[in-house]
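Can you give me the bound-state structure? Components:
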Amino acid sequence: MISIVEAQETNKMIREMNLDVRTITMGISLLDCAHSNIDTFNRNMYDKITRLAENLVKTGEDLERQFGIPIINKRISVTPIAIAAGGVNSESYVSIAETLDRAAREVGVNFIGGFSALVHKGFTTSDRRLIASIPEALATTERVCSSVNIGSSRSGINMDAVKWMGSIINQTAELTADRDSAGCSKLVVFCNSVEDNPFMAGAFHGVGEAECVINVGVSGPGVVKRALEEAKDSDFETLCETIKRTAFKVTRVGQLVAQETSKRLGIPFGIVDLSLAPTPEIGDSIAEIFQVMGLEEAGAPGTTAALAILNDNVKKGGVMASSYVGGLSGAFIPVSEDHGMIEAVQKGALTLEKLEAMTCVCSVGLDMVAIPGDTKESTISGIIADEAAIGMVNNKTTAVRLIPVIGKQVGEIAEFGGLLGYAPVMPVNGFSCQSFIDRGGRIPAPIHSFKN
Amino acid sequence: MKGIITVLGKDKVGIIAGVCTYLAGQNVNILDISQTIVQDYFNMMMIVDASNAGKAFEGLVEDLQQLGTEIGVEIKLQHEDIFSTMHRI
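Here's the bound-state model for the whole set.
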């Protein structure tokens, strides 16, 4: 029988430490929507999404009430559109994005992911059409998220795609210049992207997935921080044990919500993603965890080690709490969505180079980093190439979500609103990589990919 | 369906009576009650069986929340599973 102490502990986590389920994401395959006529394809897609996700938001809200735990986001991911729309006879995919946006609004989800292409080894005709449509698609829609996978440990890095994405990011920034280039906050460039990620903006429903599936992303930086405060001044063994125990409890809640959602909607449960996702709320920050661990600010020497400890022990604690773990599963270190990270940047403690080092030991990459609007396209490509190389060589997912804020310079603040938060514009190394990026072609697969 | 009711707030006359009267009216059976008072703060937990309740679980949640606002304490009803999955392997 549950004791009063245990009941109080759970409710204290919810009330005071921002414990929540970050997202229930329904993955939907659009492969059977294929049609050569774009209007028919759009209609098929709209009908399928609105039919399957009709009760998603209501079910999430019912579970919130039943368990007394906030479920912050209800979202949808779909088959990468470059694949689903492969047979469509049209040069532009913008109307597809607009249809996804309408479907998302109809069922009440705040984001729909999957305006995506997988080009780690080369482009299909459809991939080229999709990528060319990204800037306009993100400028004209509100809820559509886009991602492009440009590299993998198995096949190397498509440097033509890396070069092109520098330009696409810049165009997206230009087209949404009136909103501090917020279009770029919905665009992720991946190396080793995963097929079952429930978190935006990089979610899509991979082709190896079932027809429809429920994935859940947990949260809990606030809970980990509070637990570590109670273990202050302890050695590393106690520190790690504390993170593990906390991660276990947080993940159990995600598992429960995932199973219940799956049961009520009659849709199979896919995975729980064990990521510590911060929000702009005070007390829900990864940077604050570093401070409790003993660093003056995020970015101080020791930060990479602290992050490695945090990430590893979240996984160790979480794996046993869920029957299927997947997605990205690691601590997120977005700058704009974490007030502690923002402060660290403003104080000069955290630089782009340190963030890059941190991405070697955690998911996911340079996430929600604002840079000056006049940054050269080749420089953006160079940053993407560096991140992709880290992912490729270390067999992990890395990503780049950079926002070149048009009209703003280092130190100014870009406002993206809501969960996306705000971010100070960070300085970028100004030395050129133009000739390197201009080479074209692809970087061959690394030696350790040959495992057969 | 088993639920757990937690009540948290400044101690005063009639908290338990208020909650119990409501539960009886809705045909919800109380299986266990424990409570503590720390520095005038009232902390109570009830395990209840709502299988034969007069209304849906979500409805009971809302009513109890409302009752809490009237009495001036926080009353939460949650499905037992959130606690058992978190604290029991």
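A couple of observations. The radius of gyration of chain B is 13 Å. Chain B has one domain: 2-87.
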